[in-house]
Amino acid sequence: MIAIIRWIRVPVLSVLAVFIGLWIGYSKLGHQPSSEIFRWSTWKHLYDLVFAN
């Protein structure tokens, strides 16, 4: 049981850190509604901005 927790701990903490970073960057620094973090259109727009030719 302890071995499973050791393997799962790092990915879970990594995902948690990503969500906290998204929340801080998008809603606090960007002054946008935090509910938009989970919308597909937000990430499509970001992808288009980064990889546009």
Molecular structure report:
- The chain has 53 residues and is mainly α.
- It is 74% helix and 0% strand.
- The longest helix has 28 residues, at 2-29.
Briefly, what is this?
By secondary structure, the protein is mainly α. Helices cover 74% and strands 0% of the residues.
What percent of the residues sit in helical stretches (DSSP H or I)? over 70%
Largest sheet: none
- Give, in order, the helices and strands: HH
User: How many strands in all?
Assistant: 0
Structural class: mainly alpha
Strand content: under 5%
Contiguous low-pLDDT stretches (5 residues minimum) are none
Please tally the helical runs, counting DSSP H or I stretches of 4 or more residues: 2
Whole-number mean pLDDT = 88
- The separation of the N and C termini measures 50 Å
Q: Tell the overall outline.
A: elongated
Write down the Rg: 15 Å
